[in-house]
Amino acid sequence: MDLVQMQKSLQDYTKSLFLEGILDSQFLQLQQLQDESNPDFVSQVVTLFFQDSDRILNDLSLSLGQQVVDFKKVDPHVHQLKGSSSSIGAQRVKNACVVFRNFCEQQNVEACHRCLQQVKQEYYLVKNRLETLFKLEQQIVASGGMIPAVELGF
Amino acid sequence: MAEVLLPRKMEMANDPSKFGSPDLLHVLAVDDSHVDRKFIERLLRVSSCKVTVVDSATRALQYLGLDVEDKSVGFEDLKVNLIMTDYSMPGMTGYELLKKIKESSAFREVPVVIMSSENILPRIDRCLEEGAEDFLLKPVKLSDVKRLRDSLMKVEDLSFTKSTQKRELETENVYSFDSPVQSQLKRTKI
Where, by residue number, does the polypeptide cross the bilayer (chain A) (predicted)? Predict the structure, then answer.
């Protein structure tokens, strides 16, 4: 694949993530904050998100797995995850967290277990897609090309 | 007259107080989230601000010198032009931090902005009542930061200009040979 084709692939791939609602405009904000002086800004923030999320999901699994679930412990974790996913534009993860928090409020253990599964699913999905996106970018940069700016014409 | 005024102006430029560098606002950002700290730091740097980021209200108080129990004074020489804090933080909340800052003599005039991912009206009201400058919904936008910076710069500029004018007029009064009546008129103009 030549450079132009790679750049087109990247643009199409990125657009699809927005169209599927996996990412929202906040991700664009992140991209706009990246420049020659901070060329890895987006991947740095996203990496922090992955690290935080892995930890939180682990803690949530433990908390929900207890004989008696302490929702005072569960809710702050979900709140944190909701916040960080919102900050990077991981829309579906954020939305899943909103639903999760509602069930926490109701102290509905069964529903919370289902919510956790849903959040995990959305998280692994966005993680997978973003890792692919960064790989595409790396290929372009390695070939001496520039990352094209995303234009959302829809 | 010009020769008399110039030395005063140069004094102002070398003044280590906040009027010394009107272009660089120093912002203290407080957030327990890694992701949000990285994000807000970048937003502020891109907006030409000097940034100090801490991960808790306790650390913010330490930085400001407000962490000692009976000391509600703080570090007098520390120049912070704006404090931006997350609302929900473990331990001390942003609201509690806001109160401590407003109680201190060194930092009560520093504008404090609260950031929150939750649009809860009573919360917003409470913060504004306690003296918060503004309440921003997360994720914070670059336009929010620019708007804050611009309004703060205007305040700094106005103060700088007022002080300069006052000094100029006082200098004129000392060195002018105008009649006492005219000098009095100049004074009332301020």
Answer: none
